[in-house]
Amino acid sequence: MITPDIQRLEAFLIMTTTAPVTDWNVQQLDDLSGKRYLITGGNSGIGYEAAAHLRRANADVFIASRSASKGSEAAVRLSQITGGGAVEIINLDLASLDSVRDANDEIRRHTDGLDAVINNAGIMQTPQQQTADGFELQFGTNHLGHFMLNHLIFDLVAARSGRIVPVSSIAHLRAPGINFDDPMHANDYSATTVYSHSKLANIMYGLELARRLDAAASNVICATAHPGYSATNLQSTGPTGFFKLLYKVSNRLMAQSAADGAVPEVLAAAGNEARNGAYYGPTKRGDTQGPVGESRISDVAKNTHDASRLWTLSEELLGIEWTIS
Q1: Per the residue annotation, which of 37, 48, 195, 205 is the catalytic one?
Q2: Deepest in the core among 34, 44, 68, 268, taking most CB within 10 A?
């Protein structure tokens, strides 16, 4: 019989002997027939393109969308893409814990297992606002909403020895750390600083989840990804004033396509090369675009003590206890 200690040793040997991933592309995917993937924010931008890549490999895709009409429109377009697999719409607003709970119930009406959940949805540089539950909007949507969703559907991912894919950003490199004294930034709100804060939370959470999965010898893995600088409506729906004007120009001159930005998410969710605890993204021009591989992680994000504190803080804010076993 293979004991948990032997399983942990085997996982460690795989992680330390596997060559780093470089220049990965979606043509390396296996036939994904029968595989099921949930993508938050899958109705547009990078999430939609990730769903399209997976569908071309014959996967079933579940599009979690805040807007029912936009979700339905995306489903129609995805159904027209050559490839097999079902396309289902899940209503989800990550800024409402009631909506997250309802989405969990809805997902279970469609499937008894998921091969991966991609935490793609997010907002950027919004004016100071709150979620339905009183959390700062960017931290509450980008981090807490996904933390809650992953907690609720973890058994569905485990049922298929699947993957959880947090999605961070190169913006995390600018964040000085998690503000544990004022995590909602009620006293010093800056749209840009708080966005970086939420993206730092995403990668710290992803690395901490990977460590907890490893310690529990879980059959689930967590690989985090980021899209580099990709042109999507993220730059137009959140930022205001100067930044909104700036992105109109920089999107044309500097950004890669949303289809290219989705590749790291697809690698983390479905690539054979993905490993627990890895961080994938573009690797050229300051990790904004180019070949997909192992990406840079800030020293702040590698702080295991603060990552554990973030996990505990998230549980306390959400009123849950999530033990990986």
Answers
A1: 195
A2: 268
With a cut of 80, say whether residue 278 has pLDDT above it.
yes
Residue 289 vs residues 192, 206, 225, 269: alpha-carbon distances, Å: 21, 22, 13, 19
131-146 burial by CB neighbour count: b if 16+ within 10 A, else e?
Answer: bebebbbbbbbbbbbb
**Paired tokens of 268:** 């983390």
**CA distances (Å), origin 192, targets 56, 119, 139, 142, 197:** 36, 21, 12, 14, 9
pLDDT at residue 256, rounded to an integer: 84
247 is known as an active-site residue? no
48 CB-side CA count, 13 A: 21
The pTM of the full predicted model, rounded to 2 decimals, is 0.90
Average pLDDT over residues 213-236: 85
**C-alpha to C-alpha distance for 316 and 238, rounded to whole angstroms:** 28
Distances (CA, A) of 22 to 139, 275, 282: 31, 13, 10
Task: Give Cα separations from 323 to 211, 212, 274 (angstroms).
Answer: 12, 9, 24
Does the pLDDT at position 175 exceed 60? yes
The domains of the chain are located at 27-316
